[in-house]
């Protein structure tokens, strides 16, 4: 299999999507070229912070601070981006109601599952939170209005300009302003020309207050409207907003049929969306996944749909999320990915569980932490070939990505193994031919893919092991991946 592994070397542009190849033989193998295909910055990791759920479960109103366990856990992601005030709730957010003395903040409706409430975790509290965790600001501008009622663009433009002024005065260093949230679907159904006109007006107002402001417009991740396709929607909005020179956002949910297709399906749509941006604007897409997560299987209308929520935060969910993150590291044009969500503990996608021992991180948190702590900045072109013993609908068991530093004296391998069996992976790295470097492997794994941390936070924790790798004269070495695992291998030579 040595020749087959090296056949991946020296390929041209990075593949989009970076799908895993089916391996007809018994081997799993990963082949790496010496070509850098992208740079990973700390902002590659992020979280969509939904202020309502965050305030309800992770904010201590009496002490006027975020739960210390949450702060401690998130300090492991220095430079991460926190999207505020979140997704749907951003469409009803008035930043003015989130500042000033807590006692004087007005009650406002923000979600359909709760009555009016005051914004205790407001803009200033958010900025203090960023300082505590070492995070970066990302704000979602309100393009819609108030809960249940659309407001004129002139009103929202004025509010947005005031918010941009306040952010600038607070030295918030907003990385991006995201222009609305999912206004193409659901109750809104805004056609591309309506969204583009509103986004353009509000973006200009923000830029009048902060000339350095940079923007992100949301693309469609599926055909949400009967009268147009996602391809057409993305092309038209990109053309209409080209003067802003914006980046683009996508929301991808996966591995929970029927609403969440397999990861390769979502990657294919991402690449098609990038092509639509290029066609519409004449510029390459710069993509951010401002929401992504494993989707609970079943239909939201099913009476027992909530029974499937656990798969979004257990080990199975962690494998899915790690698979997507690893794939995105190999995808050209993707600048960052924000997990959905950093919010409450009672719904789907909790990053923390409320246990008898206090708030404890979920399996998905630990998977992301394994990857973040094993990250290097230069991503090398990586080709993975895998069997499919797991019978995963995406068609493979493993996916991997190799990174390095500029000096090429450190390497880092990210890998996910969806199989219920440990696998021996043949890693081909020509730069390491004939070497026997020391390595440290950190893995999150369990024999049961349904294992979770909901009881006491102790079932799933990363384990580190010192290993020695023997690369032969052709640059191949064997790496062991535990069953149902997310691993980061750090190699020094």
UniProtKB/TrEMBL annotation:
Pfam families named among the record's database cross-references: ASD1_dom
Alpha-L-arabinofuranosidase 1 catalytic domain residues: 74-139
Transmembrane regions: none
PANTHER family recorded: ALPHA-L-ARABINOFURANOSIDASE C (PTHR43576:SF3), ALPHA-L-ARABINOFURANOSIDASE C-RELATED (PTHR43576)
Name of protein: Alpha-L-arabinofuranosidase 1 catalytic domain-containing protein
Lineage summary: Bacteria, Pseudomonadati, Pseudomonadota, Betaproteobacteria, Nitrosomonadales
